[in-house]
Amino acid sequence: MKIPPFGLTTREIREELAPLRNDFSVAVCRAKNPFNIGAIIRVAHSFLVREIFLIGTEPYYERASMGMQKYETIVECPDEASFLEAARGRPLIGVERDHARRTLWEAPFPRGLVFLFGSEDDGLPQALLDACEDVIAIPMYGINHSYPVAIAAGMTLCEWARRRDPRGGVSRAGG
């Protein structure tokens, strides 16, 4: 099912969404698979994040974001140092299985946080791990070592929303 056109410009849609934005952000180290970055942008839009930090210079696949990049504030950071400067003063929560201090289910989510996701192959660079206030892991039950990064982002943002949903988790569709 396609959504009919809103009859608004991109700028007008962004202005309408601005007061609805949530007080948290997503940062992702650009990876070898540009599809994943586009998918994370699409997922982040679904949760109306404050902004999306893209760390590194690799391109991302815009088609995977399904046009949602037009409605998001995307902050391009060419390297880890520029990201840390851009996010200065905000709690960084790394999502990384190998260096986790606790699970997604038990981690506190302070206001203004930035969820930080690493690349599929290398995870989070040490400089970013060192800057994290906390590092969390999503529980796994199979023998696989990790979740795809776009899936991990979706699960993490869903847990954030579950805790913060002012409707008590009730679907707008009434389900």
TrEMBL record:
One of its GO terms (molecular function) is RNA methyltransferase activity. Keywords: Methyltransferase, Transferase. InterPro entries: Alpha/beta_knot_MTases, rRNA_Methyltransferase, SpoU_MeTrfase, tRNA_m1G_MTases_N. GO terms for biological process: methylation; RNA processing. Transmembrane segments: none annotated. The keyword Methyltransferase applies. Residues 24-157 form the tRNA/rRNA methyltransferase SpoU type domain. PANTHER family: RRNA METHYLTRANSFERASE 3, RRNA METHYLTRANSFERASE 3, MITOCHONDRIAL. This is SpoU rRNA methylase family protein. It comes from Sorangium cellulosum (strain So ce56) (Polyangium cellulosum (strain So ce56)).
